[in-house]
Amino acid sequence: MTTGNDRVRRVLDSRPVDRTPVMASFIAAGAEWRGIPQSRIHLDVDVLVSTLLDISSELGLDGAYISSDNWIIHAALGGKVEFVHDDEPRSRQHIINDWSDLDHLRVPVPEKAERMSFMLSAARQAVTRNKACLFLEANIDSGPFQMAGILRGAGQLMLDLVTEPERVHKLLEFCTEVACTYGRAMARTGVDGVQFGDSTASLVGREMCDEFVKPYQARVVAAIHSAGVYPFLHVCGNSNHLSEHLAASGAACVEIDGPTDLARTMAVFADRAAIRGNVPTTMILEGTADEVSRQARQCLRAAKGRRFILSPGCGVPRGTPMGNIRALVDAASEG
Question: Does the global pTM surpass 0.70?
Fold first, then answer.
């Protein structure tokens, strides 16, 4: 019997597969489905693992997304994070307000940094409990460009690209070392894939992407790959203008959001990487199961049998019916 783990690996390795695998990321929705405040996922390893693994199995998904929030690295570098009872953690603080602040930062030791060690513990527990049934994709927060935007502020970073490009390169060098170090540590937990997001990169044009995104992103992808796991790259928003870059990124799988043209992206990729996506989350949230199923079948037709993992374009929002995720699994099973 084919397991979800095997099904996803076959797609990533360009091997024949019995059907298109299905995955979904559902932290906020998962807490709601379990009737627990979201903070319990962010603060309790046991709750995080049981919620994400068990629901993935119950829904018939082929993999589980092991993540908490996008402030892990921020906290590891000394940033203050506020944990809200029933919402995502947040921070109102930028770590690098003056460029001299960068000189005082050091690359964290993931096993000792409080929030990083929390996620590493969750990943290890998930591996033990999973027994290789589901494909485990563990998140390490942010790629270099997105991380720079978190540390400096996304708006300020966009100005810095024009006014102080050399300082931005120095910041990106640091962010790359942080992401590589955290990525290698996550790979050592035994998960199958390590994912990072570089969604802020969708805000820049091709020339700036070539200079400020590609070389640093490639180093993180290479570090994850050399650690023996599959690198996953997530980009929110419309990434049509970055399709060629994403295809050449070296990632085993690129996750694209709902606004991106799947058929066009597939054509540009030409089998250089698998694609995960991209049923719009608005459809997942607001549509009926039948409407979600029709949209899923459109994605399957656009993929045309190429290396594809069916999923929502981004994280499943709170308020989403579980039946809408089952509709994705049903659509893939029906072919």
Answer: yes
Residue 79 CA to chain centroid, in angstroms? 21
- Could you read off the pLDDT of 196-215 as tens digits, one per residue? 998 887 788 888 999 999 99
**Model pLDDT for residues 245-293, shown as the tens digit of each residue:** 999 999 999 999 999 999 999 999 998 999 999 999 999 999 999 999 9
Those residues with Cβ within 8 angstroms of residue 55's Cβ, 6 or more apart along the chain or in another chain: 26, 30, 33, 34
Mean predicted lDDT score pLDDT of the chain: 96
190, amino acid identity: G
Which residues lie below 8 Å from residue 109, measured CB to CB, with a gap of 6+?
181
Q: Return phi, psi of residue 255, to 5°.
A: -100, 120
pLDDT one-digit tens code per residue, 116-152: 999 999 999 999 999 989 999 999 999 999 999 999 9
Span 106-120, pLDDT tens digits: 999 999 998 999 999
- Grouping H, G, I as helix, E, B as strand and the rest as coil, residue 15 is coil
User: What does the DSSP 8-state code read for residue 171?
Assistant: H
Domain count, the chain: 1
Answer yes or no: is pLDDT of 98 > 90.
yes
**Position 57 confidence tier, pLDDT thresholds 50, 70, 90:** very high
CATH of the domain at 206: 3.20.20.210
Q: Which domain holds residue 306?
A: 4-334
Q: Strand 230-235 vs strand 63-66: parallel, antiparallel, or unpaired?
A: unpaired
